[in-house]
Amino acid sequence: MEHHESHPGHAPLEVLVGRVPIFSQLDDVELKDIAGRVKLRHHRRNEQLYGAGESNPHLMIIHSGHVKVYRISESGHEQLIRVLGEGDFLGDTSFISGAPADHFASTLDAADICTLHHDDLRDYLLRFPTVTYKMLETLSNRLENTERQVSIFAGEGAEHRIAGYLLELAGEQRTSKEQDTTTVVLPIAKKDVASFLGLTPETLSRKFTQFESAGWIRMQPRRTVEIINVPALQQL
Amino acid sequence: MEHHESHPGHAPLEVLVGRVPIFSQLDDVELKDIAGRVKLRHHRRNEQLYGAGESNPHLMIIHSGHVKVYRISESGHEQLIRVLGEGDFLGDTSFISGAPADHFASTLDAADICTLHHDDLRDYLLRFPTVTYKMLETLSNRLENTERQVSIFAGEGAEHRIAGYLLELAGEQRTSKEQDTTTVVLPIAKKDVASFLGLTPETLSRKFTQFESAGWIRMQPRRTVEIINVPALQQL
DNA sequence: CGTAATATTGAGCCTCTTCAAGCGCCGTGG
DNA sequence: CCACGGCGCTTGAAGAGGCTCAATATTACG
Fold this sequence. Notes:
The first copy, chain A, has 236 residues and is an alpha+beta fold. In chain A, 42% of the residues lie in helices and 22% in strands.
C-alpha cells in the first residue's frame, strides 16, 4: 500500500495504464499517448459513479478498489449485476449504444479510477486493433458468464445457486491448498450476495445456517466462510 | 427471391456475405476474399448444429431460417437462450475462449448457414478492424439484453415476464399501426417461449388464459396473439 | 462509543411447480 | 384423401419453495 514515487501524489500513469488488460499489448510510446488522455481520480467509499438515465461519455477503468454495478427494476427491486475489481472497466455499453445507462454504479470501497473519454477511446480502437480485440475478448467472457447465470436463475433453486457461488469463489481465491477445508471471503455484504443470486437476504441467511447444521460449511466473522464438505455442495 | 446467376445453385456468395452485419462495411474485393473461404450449407428442420462438449472451430452465419441456442442443466432442465435469424451468427464464444461449447444449437426450420473457419476469422479480425468493431458492437448489445434478462428473472414474476415478452415482440413486429389492436406471432412454440422465460409450459398456458379472460389479449390459431390492451400489460 | 445499517429467526402466505389426465392439432403413412 | 399416432397444449389438484412482514440481535462505520 505504501508508495514512494518520483512525483508524489501522481503515480506513473503509463505503468498503471499498461496493467489494464485491454491495453496490455501496447508498447511504451502508445501507452504514454493513452496515459496523456486519461484522468485518474480518487473516489471514496459508497460514491455513486453514475446512475440510470445519466449518460457519462467515459470509459472507466478501475485501478484499485471495487465497484458494484446494479439495476433497480420498476418494482423497486435492486439487482446486483456484477462486481468489478482491479483492471476491469465499465461504461463500455453506453459507448457502443450511445444511449444513457440503464443501471447504477457505486464504489464499494475507496477506489482509484481512470476515465477515458469516449471520443479518445474510439480513436484508440481504430488505431490499435489489439485493443479492440482485447475488449472483444472481455465482452465475450462476460457474455458467457451472464448467459450461464440466466440458465441458473431459470432452472436451479436457491441452494444450488448459493453452493455454486461459494464454489466459484473458492476457485478464484485458491490460495494454499494445503488445508483440506477451503475458506473463502465474501467480496460483498450478504445482502448484496443475496441480490446477486436473485434471493432475499432472509433466504440466504436461512440456507447458510442450514448448510452449517448439515456440516458442510462454517460461518466465521468478517464475511468468511469455511467450506468443509466440497462434494456435498457440488452435487446440489 | 428469384435469382438468375451465371452459376446456378451457387448463389452470389459475396453478396450474401456483404449482407451480414459484421461484414457490411467491407468493399467488394474484401468481400470476395471472404466469400472464397466461406462454405454455404443447407440444413433441414430440427437439425442439430452442435452440442455441449463438442468444439466445432467455425463461426456460423445464418443466411436464412432460424436457429435456437439452448442449454441443458445438470438437472435436465432445458433453457432456451436465444433465437437467431438472418444475419446473426453463433460460435463466437468458442472462438474467443477456445473451449468446447457448453450449449446446444439446432435449426428451427430449414436454414442456409455459412461457416467460416476460426483460423480464417482470426485472419480477418486482424486485417479488417471494422469487422472486429462490428463484432464488438454485436456482443455488447447481446450482453445488454442478457443482463436485462437476468434482472427480470431475478426480480419479476411470471406475468411480468410474459407481458414484457409480448410487448417486445410487438415492438419488433411493428407492421402497420393502423389497427388499434396489435397482433404478434410467436416465433417459436409455446413450450419454447416458456423455456425462454424460465417458466413451465403449464404456467405460461394458465397466464395466457388469464390474460384472455381479463380482456387483455386474444389467442388465435397458429401462434398468433392479438394484444387488445397494451397499457394493462405494460403496468404489470 | 453510539448509532444506523446489516443479519438472523419466526410465522403465514402466495406463487409457481409437479404430477396426472384429456384434448387438439399436425404431419405421416397407408 | 383419410386414419392414425405423436407431440404440443390445456386444465385440474396438491405440494413445496421462496417471499413478505415483523421483531430481535449483531455488526460495522463514522
